[in-house]
Design a protein that fits this description.
It contains ten helices and 18 strands. It has about 425 residues and is α/β, with parallel strands linked by helices. A hairpin with a 2-residue loop joins strand 9 (about 210-215) and strand 10 (about 220-225). Helix 2 (about 40-50) packs parallel to helix 6 (about 185-200). The longest helix has 25 residues, at about 90-115. About 50% of the residues are buried. The mean pLDDT is about 95.
């Protein structure tokens, strides 16, 4: 599913080796998991630790999907609707519960990394969100006050006059620093998780696409590219890579292609100018760019909605470059060492979900903020399947509804993105 000519920075900078894949298919397993990303591997790890036989299948390779392609930014994952949208939609109590769940997810990730000794370069250095207009600055100040009061989320507003202490750019009208956010090396984290799962007895099968499921009494027969396997239960963990073979998840998510690029290596002086505190970065636009220094502090990763599926690498690179230079003109001659893309999964209610639909366990729909969430949801899903305590989430009361008019959803999402980009451009044009 990689576009031709793409190179993924994280794959080129990860020396750790994946555990080996199994040589033959098992006849029967307690659990078959479809998709070897953070969700599937985390669920597999805990099911295997509970003594169950578990096989994980990936159509292409372990970590082929978003889990090896993402920006590696972790945090409480504030909701896509924004605080006011969230409160208007769900009421204040539910909004607070959903936001608190994000903090619990982050704490879970940090605890798991420590307990499992996962080498994923986790660094908590905060996130600077650049605010594009004075109105965004004022709204953000109100929002961060609300977050501090309601869920105790620490943040600091940074006026435009002081923003050079956070970012080597004059593009923004100030910003806000969220101190709990941080970054990982996504591929290293994926390999570390897969290693723990293999040590717990999980069998990996790849490349081995699951092409169909058939319920036979209490069991499910999976058709795969290498033959059939009988499983007691199936977990669908294909997120943005869900297709017609990954029902019932596919019906419930809209995959959206996201682009990313690595710029570098850059001199230590330039890196210190771009991000004096080596923070994660985001911005207040509807169609926004995110960016961050690499864990070794030598390059920068930029990403966002730059070109849909099938966009040629050169075109994607040019689109990212235009956005990068608007914020950092000092990168005019910097080398773009890598350009790649990957799929995220959106849901109609902008919320991630986990549970059981049509007899299949599933988790996904992280809406582009899935590093922290997928590992948390993978853990919660395993607990729920096993009937263990601590499986509940603030999203449980929200039904995981099918996407209306699914065949047209990608087209609709594309139209919406273009409309949002138009609105963003208008706001920039009219700002002081
Ligand atoms: C460019 C990019 C940047 C991102 N940046 C961030 C970020 O900075 N912070 C953040 O929190 N989130 C980010 N995300 C989102 C995050 O990476 C994902 O939400 C998360 O990795 C999802 O993990 P997953 O295991 O659910 O799915 P994935 O890692 O996508 O894994 C799904 C797997 O399913 C497999 N599969 C599909 N169909 C089948 C089948 N029929 N049979 C067998 N296997 C199948 C695929 O091959 C794939 O490997 C980003 C995503 C992208 C693409």
């Amino acid at each position: 599913m990689a576009e031709q000519g793409e190179r993924i920075y994280w794959l080129d900078t990860c020396d750790a080796a994946l555990p080996p894949v199994a040589t033959g298919l098992p006849k029967r397993v307690d659990f078959a998991i479809v998709g070897a990303g953070y969700t599937g591997i985390t669920t597999a790890l805990y099911l295997a630790r509970a003594g169950r036989s578990v096989a994980v299948f990936d159509a292409v390779a372990l970590g082929h999907g978003a889990s090896s392609r993402n920006g590696g930014m972790v945090g409480p994952g504030l909701h896509k609707l924004g605080i006011s949208g969230l409160v208007a939609h769900y009421g204040e109590d539910q909004a607070v519960a959903i936001l608190n769940e994000g903090l619990l997810a982050l704490e879970h990730l940090q605890a798991m990394v420590a307990e499992e000794d996962l080498d994923g370069d986790l660094q908590i250095r905060g996130r600077f969100k650049g605010l594009r207009t004075a109105a965004h600055y004022e709204a953000s100040a109100r929002e961060s006050d609300w977050l501090r009061t309601k869920i105790g989320l620490p943040s600091d507003m940074v006026p435009q006059s002081e923003q050079r202490s956070e970012i080597g750019s004059d593009f923004y009208r100030g910003g806000v620093v969220y101190h709990r956010d941080g970054g990982v090396h996504p591929r290293k984290l994926l390999v570390a998780l897969a290693t723990r799962a293999a040590e717990a007895g999980v069998e990996f099968h790849a490349p081995c696409a699951v092409t169909g499921l058939r319920r036979d009494g209490n069991d499910v027969t999976l058709n795969t590219a290498l033959g059939s396997v009988v499983a007691g239960e199936v977990v669908m963990a294909t997120n943005g890579y869900a297709d017609r073979h990954s029902q019932p998840l596919n019906r419930r998510v809209v995959p959206i292609r996201t682009g990313a690029a690595a710029v570098g290596p850059l001199s230590p002086e330039l890196m210190a100018d771009l991000t004096p505190k080596a923070r994660m970065h985001a911005e207040s636009a509807r169609v926004f760019m995110w960016y961050r220094p690499t864990p070794d502090g030598r390059s920068f990763i930029f990403g966002g909605r730059f070109g849909g599926q099938g966009t040629a690498v050169e075109k994607r690179r040019a689109a990212i470059r235009r956005s990068v230079l608007r914020v950092f003109p000092q990168l005019e001659n910097a080398p773009f060492s890598h350009v790649w893309s990957g799929n995220v999964a959106y849901t109609p209610d902008h919320c991630p979900h986990l549970g059981r639909e049509d007899g299949v366990w599933l988790a996904g729909g992280y809406c582009g903020s899935g590093v922290t969430r997928s590992i948390y949801f993978g853990t919660k899903l395993a607990r729920r399947i096993l009937g263990q305590p601590g499986s509940e989430t603030a999203f449980d009361a929200l039904p995981f509804k099918p996407v209306p008019f699914k065949p047209f959803s990608k087209w609709g999402a594309g139209m919406l993105m273009r409309w949002y980009a138009h609105q963003d451009a208008k706001e920039l044009k009219n700002r002081d």
